[in-house]
Write a structure and sequence with these properties.
By secondary structure, the protein is α/β, with parallel strands linked by helices. Strands 3-2-1-4-7-5-8 form a seven-stranded mixed sheet, sandwiched between helices. Strands 6-9 form a two-stranded parallel sheet. α1 links the parallel β1 and β2. α2 crosses α5 and α6 runs parallel beside α7.
Amino acid sequence: MNKFIVVPCYHEYENINILLDQIAKCKFDNLTVVIIDDSENSFEQRIKKQAFKIIYLNRKKKGGRGSAVIFGFKYILNLKIDIDMIIEMDADLSHDPKELFNNLNYFKENNLDLLISSRYKKNSKIINWSINRKILSFFSNKLTKFLLKVPVSDYTNGYRVYSSKAANFVTNNCGKIGDGYIVLSEILMQLYYNKYKVDEVSTIFVNRVKGVSNVTIKEILISLIGLIKIWKIKKKLNLQ
């Protein structure tokens, strides 16, 4: 069965080859990495060849992290091949591929549709974040949990594993309230309230060393508006 990793990118040419080298050390069989790059100029020529297949898709315009992931899902599902699972992870080296061995085993053993690597589980750590960033993320997740009431601790980390069934549902039902990080919360809410099996595991999250964070005040405000929209959708789902 085929495994796919979707990596959304925006000006991540300093980090992408490091990430691909880290993934290569895991030596997964039947693996394809799909890079969705929203940079204006393609950096495909800079990408090193690996033992696994790499598909590079340049959208040439910043469309948002959430829409990039859904774009990747649609591309993979349109290949019309057997898919074991689809992994989502960031290009900025905040997500360690070495965690995938345990995560994928846990995913399979528990027959999950979505597995989230949570920064707020008991054994998790966040490295190199400022205290302000930690506070903002912590309370954002608390607010999101208060409104959406999905029994997980991390709504906004983009290190996830999806079943092909869940990915198909996401492409048909999500991405309608925005295109940034808020889509992560939308996907989680939609899968949970439509009876897909969701769980989370601990993780070590490391803040980027190279490049610049794409999280801005504008995106935070847009996410808050998006959260209200998701809450309204959730209320409708609860009435069905």
